[in-house]
Q: What sequence folds into this?
């Protein structure tokens, strides 16, 4: 039994120098190509924007493109929305964004985070 535990521990052990990092919502250094990001903004509304990472450039930059979204609940003014994964907003082009010195990523003045797959709340009422 002891040998089995040693074997399992050796197989599961992650080397500190390993390239493996668990993806974290607020840590852009763990994000990669194909990940979907979400930002929210608005002065007295909650506007949601989804972006897909098209390409990782080096260790500090990404090329992203805005995704279309669909409403999954609500009345059109308030509710929840999700991205349409491979449908890009044709009015928006690819943009390059860079991780800042605070280890965060801003897309058009809004902080981005890794989308967790759950619908996002929006509110278009002014």
A:
């Amino acid at each position: 039994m002891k040998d089995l535990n040693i074997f399992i521990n050796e197989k599961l052990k992650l080397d500190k120098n390993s390239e493996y990092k668990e993806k974290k919502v607020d840590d852009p250094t763990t994000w990669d190509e194909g990940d979907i990001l979400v930002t929210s903004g608005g002065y007295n509304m909650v506007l949601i924007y989804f972006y897909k990472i098209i390409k990782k450039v080096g260790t500090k930059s990404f090329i992203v493109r805005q995704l279309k979204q669909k409403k999954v609940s609500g009345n059109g003014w308030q509710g929840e929305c999700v991205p349409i994964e491979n449908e890009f907003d044709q009015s928006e082009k690819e943009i390059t964004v860079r991780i800042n010195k605070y280890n965060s990523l801003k897309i058009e003045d809004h902080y981005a985070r890794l989308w967790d797959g759950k619908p996002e709340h929006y509110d278009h009422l002014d």
Summary: Residues 24-123 form one domain. DSSP finds one helix and nine strands in the chain. Residues 14-20 have pLDDT under 50 and may be disordered.
